[in-house]
């Protein structure tokens, strides 16, 4: 068939109108099943898991899919931030100053938590600062409504349905009331931004009042963050790592230390790390401290460190210790974990 100019403009018109239709529809959840039918089925599954009818009744009062959440979930990041931009925004002088204030304001709670959980105060505070600006921004969405929206939508229904059922269980156990169960649009809850399943595994009732309150009760907030790190291998006698100076031939060094084995978890971040070597091995390869001195002696408990250069070979270089990997379990991103680490150093 010969495509004439008229036909071509007709095709163009159809394409344009289809794509504007799609743009209008992008805030509507993608699910052929009517919401009420879907919700009845979800409630049935919750009942079967032992969640009480009363909890379900209160939890789902006035809950309907939120178009804004679908829109946020569909939105592609407009541009990728560079490492320098990320750090200057996330570890800003304001955030450092506020962190120092918060540490002194909450020292009566932070230091007993740090001691009993075995995680240094500055790391607990740094995660608190990175996640919610020290509890000042925890996200204003109803967790049940947010998770309902995302579980009903067909993009990642299995994951969010499981999280929603966990959230209902948390309500059922009375840790928090439905109106106070606030979180991010993606369902991360409270001052440490725990997903409901993480709450289940790591939230900690430090003041022993029977409720794990990661929304309002700071001692529970701090202990839950600390418990998360501890359960992912945190070592209290270590820091996160350090900035280092590399020998001149960076390419030559990288060739020697490239990873060869299979990466088991958090591949997105760990694929950019070198092999894990001891500090003595790094010394032998000519790696120095940030200001050109020798790397420290490791003491009685040797450990491994991997090299990461988040801005490429011309940017800063960091040797990251085992604790860095615990931070990556909180959020699998080198930028994030370096943000926490550098903020923690400023809060020392
Ligand atoms: Ca408590």
């Amino acid at each position: 068939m010969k495509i004439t100019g008229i036909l071509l403009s007709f095709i163009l018109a159809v394409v344009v109108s289809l794509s504007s239709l799609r743009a209008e529809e992008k805030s509507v959840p993608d699910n052929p099943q009517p919401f009420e039918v879907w919700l009845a089925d979800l409630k049935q599954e919750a009942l079967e898991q032992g969640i009480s009818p009363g909890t379900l009744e209160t939890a789902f009062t006035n809950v309907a899919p939120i178009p804004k959440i679908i829109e946020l979930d569909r939105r592609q990041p407009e541009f990728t931030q560079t490492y320098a931009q990320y750090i200057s925004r996330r570890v800003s002088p304001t955030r450092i100053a506020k962190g120092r204030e918060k540490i002194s304001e909450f020292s009566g709670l932070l230091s007993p938590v740090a001691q009993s959980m075995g995680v240094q105060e500055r790391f607990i505070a740094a995660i608190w600062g990175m996640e919610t600006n020290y509890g000042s921004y925890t996200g204003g969405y109803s967790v049940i409504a947010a998770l309902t929206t995302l579980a009903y939508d067909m993009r990642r229904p299995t994951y969010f349905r499981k999280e929603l059922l966990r959230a209902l269980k948390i309500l059922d156990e009375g840790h928090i009331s439905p109106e106070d169960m606030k979180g991010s649009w993606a369902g991360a809850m409270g001052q440490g931004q725990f997903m409901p399943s993480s709450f289940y595994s790591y939230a900690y009732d430090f003041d022993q009042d029977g409720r794990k309150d990661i929304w309002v009760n700071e001692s529970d907030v701090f202990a839950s963050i600390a418990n998360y790190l501890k359960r992912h291998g945190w070592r209290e006698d270590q820091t996160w790592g350090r900035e280092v100076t590399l020998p001149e031939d960076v390419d030559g060094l990288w060739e020697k230390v490239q990873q060869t084995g299979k990466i088991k978890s958090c591949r997105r971040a760990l694929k950019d790390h070198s092999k894990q070597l001891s500090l003595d091995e790094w010394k032998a390869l000519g790696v120095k401290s940030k200001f050109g001195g020798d790397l420290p002696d490791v003491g009685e408990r040797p450990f491994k460190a991997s090299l990461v250069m988040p801005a490429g070979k011309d940017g800063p270089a960091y040797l990251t210790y085992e604790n860095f990997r615990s931070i990556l379990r909180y959020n699998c991103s080198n930028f994030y974990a370096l943000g926490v680490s550098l903020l923690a150093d400023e809060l020392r």
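The chain has 17 helices and seven strands. Confidence is low (pLDDT under 50) at residues 14-24.
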